[in-house]
Amino acid sequence: MRRDIGTDDPRVRVRPGKRSRPRTKIRPDYSNARRGRVFRVDRGRYHVTMLDDGTKVTAVKAKELPRGAIVVGDVVAMTGDLSGRKDTLARITEVDERRTALRRSAEETEAAGTERVIVANADQLVIVTAIAQPEPRPGMIDRLLVAAYDAGMTPILLLTKEDLGDPSTLQDLYAPLDLDIYTSAIDEVAGTAEITEIAQALEGHVSVLVGHSGVGKSTLINELVPAADRATGDVNEVTGRGRHTSTSAMAFPLAEGGVVIDTPGVRTFGLAHVEPEDLLRGFPDLQEIADDCPRGCEHADASIDCAFDDALAQASDGRLRARVDSFRRLLASRTAMEPDWA
After folding, report:
1. Per the annotation, does 162 bind a ligand?
2. What is its EC number (predicted)?
């Protein structure tokens, strides 16, 4: 059949189209490529520390890797110029399977419900909470506990600014959990912190710090890694909120072994990616009570014959009430995608 060229004029000649080259199904094998760990992502450039000799390399990702496929903590296959010299670029060709992935879901705007990996391959999640300035929010702590258990990470609770208040209230609230709790005093004027115990807990681990702005994450990083020189900020006296000083996640090696990852301050931490039945993993003190619930119980306020209500009726103090309220608030906010106000 003659090709329709839009005219019958025999003088018109049409250049034949180029034949598309068949795409091969054979993919390059990067199993023997050198590996590095991503310690910072900045505007399309990936800063990587080579695992074999510690050389710091700047790289771009291969075109076949989708946007957002690489995060801090990823172990990646590297090709190209791996010398680390100024103005050289390597190429990331493959991302190794992640052992853990700390995920967060957006709760606002059109991106609500969209899941995003924040950090990969960390084994400890350090929940950093100030005892005062800004005031602690147990609801955020609970969300981060759930996120840690969902990611397969060990949670640690670090209460900073011990010099500004009494940590016993939070310590008592989370005492029933199998959770390591540390305290630290931060001198905001001098920009220093007492970190002996938490420093020992981080040795030999890949740990990520998460918490509100102004709780002292950057001050802590500067004490752990003096060369980090992370900017620190004050807390607004009117709103009680901290000012963002870290704009992106960044990993730092510890002198005694291990890695610590600083993250920007968060105001909310969405859990839309966590199934409701998995939320109880962040509340091990409530799991035993939930065993007495009828099959299919959602443990919500309106759930019929929920064992939580029976336990609350017999409770002699307010601790259990605080924990059940926190769980139910978390369950409701996860479903309704509302900000966490607690």
Report:
1. yes
2. 3.6.1.-
Q: Are the beta carbons of 141 and 174 closer than 8 angstroms?
A: yes
> Is 303 assigned to a binding site?
no
Among 44-58, 175-189, 248-262, 304-318, the least confident range: 175-189
Q: Please check if 75 is assigned to a binding site.
A: no
User: Beta strand 101-105 with 90-95: parallel, antiparallel or unpaired?
Assistant: unpaired
Quick check: helix, strand or coil at residue 282? helix
Please check the confidence at residue 81 and state whether its pLDDT lies above 90: yes
56 is in an annotated binding site: no
Task: Identify which has the larger pLDDT, 176 or 85.
Answer: 85
Decide: pTM greater than 0.85: no
What would the DSSP string read from start to end of 27-93? ----TTSEEEEEEEEETTEEEEEETTT--EEEEEE-TTSPTT---TT-EEEEEE--S--TT--EEEE
Closest CA to 181 of 206, 156, 202, 160: 156
55 labelled ligand-binding: no
Q: What is the pLDDT of residue 85?
A: 95
Over its C-alpha atoms, the chain yields an Rg (Å, rounded) of 25
Is 214 annotated among the ligand-binding residues?
yes
Q: Is 306 assigned to a binding site? A: yes
Angle at 235 between CA 230 and CA 240, to 5 degrees: 145
Q: Is residue 218 part of an annotated ligand binding site?
A: yes
Length of the chain: 342
Q: Is 41 annotated as a binding residue?
A: no
216 is in an annotated binding site: yes
Q: Please name each of the domains of the chain with its CATH number.
A: 35-95 (2.40.50.140), 101-231+247-262 (3.40.50.300), 276-336 (no CATH)
Any binding-site annotation on 18? no
Which range has the worst mean pLDDT, 25-34, 84-93, 185-194, 215-224?
185-194
Is 25 annotated for ligand binding? no
